[in-house]
Design goal:
alpha/beta; Rossmann fold; 8 helices; 60% helix; binds adenosine monophosphate
Length: 191
């Protein structure tokens, strides 16, 4: 299996690039943000408990997210690889993911981080908020909170994968095609 983590702050382009990568490499897209929004839309108990965290820009508790990923794996047993988007977001999630993958006799192949300046991120998120219907993209204070959470809880995940020799980063500013080409060349060198 080939398992890729696309890493980067909110608005760095992970969703856009994921769509292209899934098409190119036939990976199964696992976006915990999308799964959580689906739970909210379906008004499940999990969705109701996750909503207040998402609306205030905080992370949903690790155990909830890890449980959701575990059942996603159960639903996609024949997958030839996964593309993780917006997960893992804490070191505890990264360690849990390693364990789940080990149980499946596989592992993370590579982590690719998209580097984008905070000024550009805010601009992109406010623009996305005009059409995405996502309340967490329309309020600048929630956006700033998400960056703070990213710096405190998610950035350490980069060191976790650096220590494992799996971390690469590329410029996330430029055209969608240029960034995609950068990701593909990292994937080629890791295969
Ligand atoms: P995203 O669509 O990835 O930007 O996620 C939107 C929101 O969902 C985040 O701001 C968090 O509140 C929540 N969320 C998504 N993925 C995770 C995760 N791996 N761990 C905790 N919370 C998450």
């Amino acid at each position: 299996m080939f398992n890729l983590v696309l890493f980067g702050p909110p608005g760095s382009g992970k969703g856009t690039q994921s769509d292209k990568l899934v098409e190119q490499y036939g990976l199964i897209h696992l976006s915990t943000g999308n799964l959580l929004r689906k739970e909210i839309a379906d008004q499940t108990a999990l969705g109701l408990s996750a909503k207040s965290y998402i609306d205030s820009g905080k992370l949903v508790p690790d155990q909830v997210v890890i449980g959701m990923v575990d059942s996603f794996f159960d639903q996609h047993k024949g997958a030839k690889g996964f593309l993780f988007d917006g997960f893992p977001r804490t070191v505890a999630q990264a360690a849990a993911l390693d364990e789940l993958l080990t149980q499946k006799n596989t592992a993370i192949s590579i982590v690719i981080a998209l580097e984008v300046s905070e000024e550009e991120l805010v601009k992109r998120l406010l623009k996305r908020g005009q059409t995405s219907g996502r309340s967490d993209d329309t309020d600048e204070s929630v956006i700033r909170k998400r960056f703070a959470v990213y710096g405190q809880e998610t950035s350490p995940v980069a060191s976790y994968y650096q220590a494992a020799g799996k971390f690469r980063s590329i410029a996330g500013e430029g055209s969608v095609e240029e960034i995609f080409a950068g990701i593909c060349s990292q994937i080629t060198s890791a295969r």
